[in-house]
Specification:
alpha/beta, TIM Barrel, five-stranded mixed β-sheet
């Protein structure tokens, strides 16, 4: 065990995936049951709101209708989603979080994840308004984060807009999913799924070069009630405990890494500081350590 990881354990999860609670397939009950087979934590995500959807384009009429029906379905079933999310949370065994997706052409799509099973679908017109309302939830004791995903789609077409990035609500960024990999220009599996191709200014490496601080996560963005589907993306976190508090703290401290499917255990540290740390006073004699293990098949 590398210095900086003592007292921590690795856990695996998927906090951005879909089912039939909005548009998709399968029940939320099936989604959590499938997640329990291979994951330690999970959030099942409904499609919730899209303020700047191009509603005036005639050629997109059916697509707009499809999305709006899905949003309405999630609103109708939101109390059920909250109840099932809470019922599936077993501290020490399997951890769940409440979430929904907020789409945006200008600022990029974000998954809104609540620390527990309480929270609302917020009809915010802009990302800044959304974060302002999430701040109100925090003041009432309901913590949340806004996680951007498929970030390297072109800006203006649901890719990330780094001008809107703030670390207070975005400790982690999703860099791999069924859409592809947004780590860098030359990363394998370029996002070509929907709004491609990959745009250089939306990559994680570009955001880091701007000086932004964030951790990496992977999630499936699967739409058929199978969180953690192999090859689509999942997240490894180093946490003190398999509890909501423990997993949430790992996200806030950015002790996270993105995986495509295999349950790989990875540790790395610089001068004894674990992944996600900010080293404000670098020294000349920096020591870097990396350790990894082969695929872990056990849950």
């Amino acid at each position: 065990m590398i210095e900086g990881y003592k007292g921590l354990k690795v856990y695996y999860g998927d906090i951005h995936n879909h089912c039939g609670i909005s548009y998709g397939h399968g029940t939320i009950e099936d989604a959590f049951a499938n997640a329990r087979l291979q994951l330690n934590f999970c959030s099942v995500t409904g499609h919730g709101y899209w303020p700047d959807m191009p509603r005036d384009e005639e050629r997109l009429r059916e697509i707009v209708r499809y999305h709006e029906e899905g949003f309405a379905k999630l609103r109708r079933g939101w109390e059920h989603v909250k109840a099932v999310t809470e019922a599936n949370n077993e501290e020490g065994k399997f951890v769940t979080f409440l979430s929904y997706e907020w789409h945006c052409m200008r600022s990029g799509d974000h998954t809104i994840i609540y620390k527990g099973s309480e929270g609302d679908i917020i009809p915010a017109s802009t990302l800044s308004e959304l974060k302002s309302k999430l701040s109100e939830f925090r003041r009432r004791g309901v913590d949340a984060m806004a996680m951007p995903h498929h970030i390297s789609y072109p800006r203006g077409y649901r890719g990330i807009n780094w001008a809107d990035f703030t670390p207070d609500f975005t400790p982690v960024v999703e860099i791999v999913s069924m859409h592809g990999c947004s780590e860098s220009d030359d990363a394998p599996y370029p996002p070509l799924h929907t709004m491609g191709p990959r745009d250089h200014e939306g990559t994680a490496q570009y955001g880091l070069a701007l000086g932004h601080i964030f951790g990496f996560v992977g999630n499936t963005d699967h739409h058929s009630a199978h969180p953690g589907s192999y090859g689509c993306g999942r997240t490894g976190v180093w946490a003190e405990s398999l509890t909501r508090d423990g997993i949430w703290e790992a996200f806030q401290k950015r002790r996270t890494y993105a995986l495509t499917g295999d349950r790989i255990e990875l540790q790395f540290a610089i001068n004894g500081k674990p992944m996600g740390s900010v080293i404000t006073k670098p020294t000349k004699g920096q020591g870097t350590r990396v350790e990894g293990q082969e695929t872990r098949d056990e849950k």
